[in-house]
Design goal:
Elements lengths: L1 E3 L5 E8 L6 E7 L4 H15 L16 H9 L3
Antiparallel strand pairs: 1-2, 2-3
Helix pairs in contact: 1-2
């Protein structure tokens, strides 16, 4: 998800929500969001909560990048 601050500069939001419990597992706000950053943040959640069987995304460029896709495949997601 993308938004902007009061000066109009872009902000990127990364949210990870459990669809069953509706618990927010991750909320990240950054000026730039790279595939590497996404992989690192999601790996942290997986280490605490375990990897899910399915992950739904909006298919933003950060999620279809090579690094997150390889990580998710290796995690069995």
């Amino acid at each position: 998800m993308e938004d902007s601050d009061f000066l109009g500069r872009p902000l990127h939001l990364l949210t990870l929500v459990d669809e069953y419990t509706r618990e927010c597992l991750l909320l990240e706000v950054e000026r730039t969001m790279t595939g590497e950053r996404i992989r690192y943040r999601i790996a942290g959640v997986f280490n605490v909560c375990g990897a899910p069987r399915h992950l739904r995304s909006d298919d933003g460029s950060e999620f279809i990048a090579t690094e997150p896709r390889k990580f998710l495949a290796a995690a069995g997601v």
